[in-house]
Amino acid sequence: MTSDLSTTGPDSPESPAGATDAPGATNAPGAISTAVLNRMYVRALSVEASFNYERQQGLGFAYSMIPAVKALYAKEAEQAAALKKHLEFFNTTPYVATAIVGVSTAVEEQLSRDRTLDPATANSVKAALMGPLAGIGDSLYWGTIRLLVTGIGVSLAMAGNILGPIIFFLGFNIPVQVLSYLYLRSGYRFGTKLLARISGSDGMASLTYGAGIVGLMVIGGLTASLVSIHVPIEFEVGEGTSSIQTDVLDGIMPGILALGAFWLIYWLLGKGWKTTWLLLAIFGVGLVGAFTGVLGVAS
After folding, report:
1. What is the DSSP letter of 56?
2. For residues 36 and 109, is the Cβ–Cβ distance under 8 A?
3. This prediction's pTM
4. How does 156-188 read in b/e, with b if 16+ C-beta sit within 10 Å?
5. Distance of CA 184 to the CA centre of its chain
6. Most CB atoms closer than 10 Å: which of 159, 229, 242, 273?
7. What's residue 42's pLDDT?
8. Phi, psi of 142 (to 5 degrees)
């Protein structure tokens, strides 16, 4: 990555249009060319190649943004600061990730020209888009395109026709790649037009605020759906039994343990705990809880 972030000279073909060495200088319009978008598309094909449990597709997303960052910022320090924003948590259906890459490029372009804007806008927009687009992408690709081409390909393959696997391979991958490229171009054009309309007014602040709210809703939904903590302990009440999980904890608030665990881990991360140690701690608590019967699997 060091070579990708090297400072380019004024005569270099990678040098941003209109960039100067003056402090706070901004770039001329049109810094994001078709060639830059093409390089970003190729990089976005590997958005899941460095998937990890801390930031999931975050590193792949930042890798996709490098050509845009190099085109928009002249100094290496500015490039590093811009890329640092895009290393945050990111996860969506990989086939629609290019749409968010395109919109984020438009946002980054606006941030490079107007240094008074809040840099957090880039991550707010990403967080707001990744959840809804993931739902659309899963339904379109896994629930529609793949099922159609699988049905055709398997039917031909069972009949001994060599076209079966070929149709399956091409029938899925060609639409995926064509649509991914169109998503990138459309996302950039849409983001550029939208930001051009709302820049210079209170619209940018409203966009950031609204995107932040949607992003928090997405994180809250992920917490409720992906974090599961169940206490199977029961105790006698009169002639029957009562469950701590159902009758006590869920009676206070459904998912209260998952919410508490989320905030505890969030607090520990803020205190400087390493993700590896937190994962080991969660693993240990789960083993001890399962061995003692305090924790179990929800029925």
Report:
1. B
2. no
3. 0.60
4. bbeeeeeebeebbeebbeebbeebbbebbbebb
5. 15
6. 229
7. 93
8. -80, -35
